[in-house]
Specification:
With about 475 residues, this protein is of the alpha+beta class. The chain has helices spanning about 5-10, 20-25, 30-35, 60-65, 110-120, 125-130, 160-175, 235-240, 260-275, 285-295, 305-320, 325-345, 355-360, 375-380, 395-410, 430-440, 445-450, 455-460; strands at about 15, 40-45, 55, 70-75, 75-80, 80, 90, 95-110, 135-140, 145-155, 180-185, 190, 195, 205, 225. Helices cover about 40% and strands about 15% of the residues.
Length: about 475
């Protein structure tokens, strides 16, 4: 049985059959209202099933996924397309989404007692934690999928796709901020709360209700339960701080996202205050630093982000730094060995090499790697990167390299090199201050500063080895 099913039974929650669940989820979409159970949905299958996806009529979904351990479906509808034989199929991928039916939050390794508290307090739990109550909850092995079904599906238009991503990120952060993790001395991690958030985008496919969970949870089917009511997109937008956004538009709209416009205006303003620099591109050395960090976090499984996503983050860093594929594979193999070594030692689930290999697929499929900012990579890994000013080097090594580069610039007569170093006049007051102090032993720091027209800290600085006056 799935970890949390007993809790839903005890609290009298209504269980939906797989077909009831998906009919409720897609009921108000344009595709379902037109085609009903003949509506085509893209179901993604794992590598065990061929590593592909299939366009499946909604009425055949339960039959096609029954008995599968890894069958996934997103809470979106997709634009139709014709295959080579002229038959209609469903598209797949985030760029082909037609309507968004629900926001989904993926929580791993939750505490059943905390789930019981959330279900038995008649909505007070969600109000106390300032998180909206989900419409449906899907029990999948040790985890939960919280479905925030929308009263009216939202067309995923260019005008507001960024706003939808902001709402999705806010939901995940709401659960992450309320989550507490205790790390014991032996490496075990105990998560207190509904679960540890595993961040995904709005078009992410999730395990199909009626299919099977991971092998360690046995052959109990993934189940869906009714918890609350559908929510409006305007309510979620207000919670996420997007009160000014309107999700209705007349006619065909290709205008830019309102949030995109504000971001671009903010960047333009920021650029007007930034001093010009010759620096271009990504920080070199970031890839090596991230690879070392992932090895260092290997022991703390489930406290941080998903291991699959850590490989994705490292792959993106490899593209940014121009690291060859052979080096990436070698580093991921070393991290993979470290993960499984810690898994055996601390009782964590192991990760297969095929999963790591799948996560590296994006190495040759990143047309614009600059679209992946720092915060995105941080959420993939699950820990903050901080500021790396020296590319991971200590101060001694950093200064050694910097001085060698500066010397080479000076010898080559590069003008830019002459502007660095200590400010003009630095150190010229030393002899004057020490001579005055020697001829006026009764003067204190303040009197010396007034007599010479310098600051008191400058006087104290150059008299440190020869204390004088009132200090």
């Amino acid at each position: 049985m799935n970890l949390h099913e007993d809790v839903f039974i005890e609290n009298g929650c209504v269980e939906l059959s797989p077909m009831e669940f998906y009919r409720h989820l897609f009921f108000f979409t344009k595709a379902y209202m037109k085609y009903r159970d003949s509506m085509l949905v893209p179901v993604t299958f794992s590598e065990e099933s061929g590593g592909s996806w299939a366009s499946v009529p909604l009425g055949e979904l339960e039959e096609r996924c029954q008995g599968h351990r890894d069958a996934y479906l997103s809470a979106c509808t997709y634009f139709p397309r014709r295959d080579r034989e002229g038959r209609w199929q469903s598209s797949n991928g985030k760029d082909m989404v037609d309507e968004l039916c629900a926001f989904v939050v993926d929580l791993d390794h939750g505490d059943p007692d905390e789930v019981h508290a959330a279900l038995s307090t008649d909505g007070c739990y969600w109000e106390l934690h300032q998180v909206p109550e989900p419409t449906y909850v899907v029990c999948s092995g040790n985890g939960l999928h919280l479905y925030y079904a929308l009263e009216t599906p939202v067309p995923v238009m260019k005008r507001w796709v960024r706003e939808l991503e902001v709402i999705n990120r806010w939901l995940y952060r709401a659960f992450a901020d309320g989550d507490e993790a205790v790390v014991y001395a032996d490496g075990r991690v105990n998560t207190i709360g509904l679960g540890s958030p595993d961040y995904h985008g709005i078009a992410q496919p999730y395990r199909v209700a009626g299919s099977l969970p991971k092998a360690e949870r046995g052959d109990s089917e993934v189940s869906a339960w009714v918890v609350g009511r559908p929510v409006s997109i305007e309510y979620l937008a207000t919670c996420a701080g997007l009160e000014q956004t309107s999700f209705t538009v007349e006619g065909f709209d290709l205008s830019k996202s309102l949030l995109t416009q504000r971001i671009e205006e903010g960047r333009a303003t920021a650029r007007s205050y930034v001093k010009k620099t010759s620096r271009r591109g990504w920080n070199p050395g970031f890839y090596r630093w991230l690879a070392d960090q992932e090895r260092g976090h290997a022991r703390l499984y489930s406290e941080f982000g998903h291991r699959y996503k850590q490989v994705q983050a490292l792959t993106i860093a490899a593209v940014k730094d121009g690291v060859p594929r052979e080096q990436l594979v070698a580093d991921v193999k070393a991290i993979h060995e470290e993960w499984n070594k810690c898994a055996k030692k601390y009782g964590h689930p192991e990760i297969s090499w095929s999963e790591c290999r799948k996560a590296m697929r994006s190495f040759g499929d990143l047309p614009d790697h600059r679209r992946f900012p720092k915060w995105w990579l941080e959420e993939l890994c699950g820990w903050p990167f901080g500021t790396q000013k020296r590319n991971g080097r200590d101060q001694g090594e950093h200064l050694k390299r910097s001085r060698a580069i500066r010397k080479a610039y000076l010898e080559a007569g590069v003008e830019d090199a002459s502007g660095g170093g200590r400010p003009t006049g630095s150190g010229t007051k030393r002899q004057m201050i020490q001579d005055y102090a020697a001829t006026h032993p009764e003067a204190n720091h303040s009197e010396i500063a007034r007599a010479l027209g310098v600051s008191r800290p400058t006087v104290i600085k150059w008299l440190r080895t020869h204390p004088e006056g009132d200090e």
